Amino acid sequence: MWGHWKPHLHDHLTAFNDTHIAMALLGASPVDVDIDTWLEAASAFALHGRGSHQQLADTTGQRIVTAVAKFKKGDYESTVQLLLPVRNDVDSIGGSHAQRDIVHQLLIQACLRSGEPQHSRLAHYLLNQRLAERPTSHLTKRLIERLQTRAASE
Predict the structure, then answer these.
(1) Which pick of 39, 73, 111, 149 has the fewest CB atoms within 10 Å?
(2) Taking all residues of the chain, what is their mean pLDDT, rounded to a whole number?
């Protein structure tokens, strides 16, 4: 995936593209790009004055991109703090339902990996909400089982 996105690293055309570039960039091993420099460039792009819908998409995209970087570094608490306020705005960045769902999955994974008790409660809430929306989702059921196993061992 990274090989496909690398030529577009500094395009910063849309929040959707930046989000996907960030995921490819941070998933690549070894990463041959300075993520902090790239995030600064993406942030500068997002701050350009444009219409209110596009500004919402850029702000949401910027938070998602930063959250992906925090998740990669193991900073799950910051990941939750970044994604929670924009979880209902993810549609503004574009992409398919499945592509946008990755953001929701990332938030749930960060909640599950965080050591904060309130994040376990948040994961429970998000997973129940997800189960109501997707009652046949095997992924959701596995994540609920993981949360229950973790709660039982605490």
Answers:
(1) 149
(2) 80
